[in-house]
């Protein structure tokens, strides 16, 4: 059990999130699970009002084996591993963590079946998961092996110290490089979608043109995330009438069966290692399907030269003069 003293009069969830450097949703899971006490009394209400110098005690849940009827038949490429973090290249078609609506093995179940030790801050169902990718999105993800690493990585997500760059193939080129700062919430008519909603959670993305084929039918763009809302890249692009190839949920219409995936790939992840404080950069190679679609007019060497990490990072380094949508 860990104990600390409240620094001010505030809500329990706010004080605990600040102390642990994790999200309010993760704190809510701890509190509702009966793992938090105030002055030696268990409190299960996140909005419990603290006083200055109250004693807060908490126990992080122990990792337990996930019971599932589904066996993970897929494999996952490991990009990096040490005692604190695991960096993977998530395949397309794999859901990250279990949910009532998910009727198949998930990444979390694959991790458990491979006997990885994982953090428990997010609860058993999200063991190790610091951030997620949509089922139809491939690419680089970091998994926390212990609670200290999870807290550090979550803090980096909140503070924007963790950098994420995606690559996508779109139906139309951008008019120019742009930043979209528009709030995202649940679509009022379609529960599967999100959309721009006034007063919803803030969401900010930057988009840059990388390559456009001569016939302008295939356009390679890069996206940098400043926040991490569900379907953020897809929603923001749809808001300016741009759509990722294969993404029929947000408006792309294909006349060909060739497009059988959403062409969105988490390409670069930069983070500060939670133990060594070293800046680390990881890259998930661009899938072959991207080259196959764009390669009829642009050869692989030109594509690779255009998406080196140094070039992409330079593109996003100074975006103050870009077109701004809000």
Strand count, sense and closure of the main sheet? Answer: 10 strands, mixed
Radius of gyration: 21 Å
End-to-end Cα distance: 45 Å
The total count of helices amounts to 8
Q: What is the string of SSEs from the N terminus onward?
A: EHHEEEEEHEHEEEEEEHEEHHHE
Mean pLDDT: 88
Beta-strand portion reads: 25-35%
Q: Which term fits the overall shape?
A: globular
> In which range does the helix fraction lie?
10-25%
Could you explain the architecture of this structure?
The chain is of the alpha+beta class. The chain has eight helices and 16 strands. Strands 5, 6, 7, 8, 9, 12, 13, 14, 15 and 16 form a ten-stranded mixed beta sheet that branches. Strands 1-4-2-3 form a four-stranded antiparallel beta sheet. The chain has a two-stranded antiparallel sheet with strand order 10-11. α1 (12-20) crosses α2. The protein is globular. The N and C termini lie far apart (45 Å).
Task: Offer a quick outline of the entry.
Helix content is 21%, strand content 25%.
Record the SSE blueprint.
Layout: E1 2-5, H1 12-20, H2 24-32, E2 36-38, E3 41-42, E4 55-58, E5 77-81, E6 85-90, H3 107-113, E7 138-144, H4 147-159, E8 163-170, E9 178-181, E10 184-186, E11 194-196, E12 204-212, E13 219-225, H5 232-238, E14 264-272, E15 279-283, H6 288-294, H7 300-306, H8 309-317, E16 323-325
Parallel strand pairs: 7-14, 9-16
Antiparallel strand pairs: 1-4, 2-3, 2-4, 5-6, 6-7, 8-13, 8-14, 9-12, 10-11, 12-13, 14-15
Helix pairs in contact: 1-2
